[in-house]
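Objective 1b. Sequence-to-structure analysis of Gag protein.
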Amino acid sequence: MVGIFGGDALRGLAVATPAEQVERIEAFDTYERGLITHVQGLQAPLRAAFLLSNYEYRQRSHVLACKQGKRELHEYIQEMRVRAAPLVGNPLPEHIKATVFMDGLKVGPSRTQLFRVHVNTMEVTIQIALQEEYSHLHPRTPTSVWQGHNASTGAVQGAPAAGASMVPVPMELGTAVQSSIRCYGCGKLGNMQRVCPAGGQRKFPSKLRGSRGQMQKPRPKSQGNWGHQLGRGALLGKI
């Protein structure tokens, strides 16, 4: 405060009566508003002297032609804000900036959601686009959690306790129980295929046995039931 107003001014304000303090504060406020008006009046000649004649037209054309392309969403948002900031004297209406921002977005969840809702300002449009991108890039609640969801009470059956982590846990194959490991070669439990005692191959019986344990000769595939009926007819003819 001393650096801004000076020590003498603060000491004089401290010894003054309340009415004098209010009068001095109002006088300083009037003086400050006059300085601001004077500086704003000097901006027009400075712009005419140093800026190009079609500067605002160029800035407006840059805003209208702004596209996201292959860039990230936050980069596109930053460029839109930078392009629209210099348009102070004759700014674009908010609904036009919102429409230009929506039209410049690439096809995706953010663009789809923005065309579903009715937004009139660019900042609200930016917030909706950021929320949609965040929801799209981050994982959602697992489907198994909602399988036990009760629509009437809103409770979730089998839901984890409060504070429990919902982050997916990676599989630890090294901690698997040896007895639960199945060999893909022989099909038995207790070993893997690379250390299979049978060499990773299944053992099939070489001959087929009947219900009484006797060896049976495999039936030719070409005969089928017709060959069986012919053999039965020949046996009956001998009888």
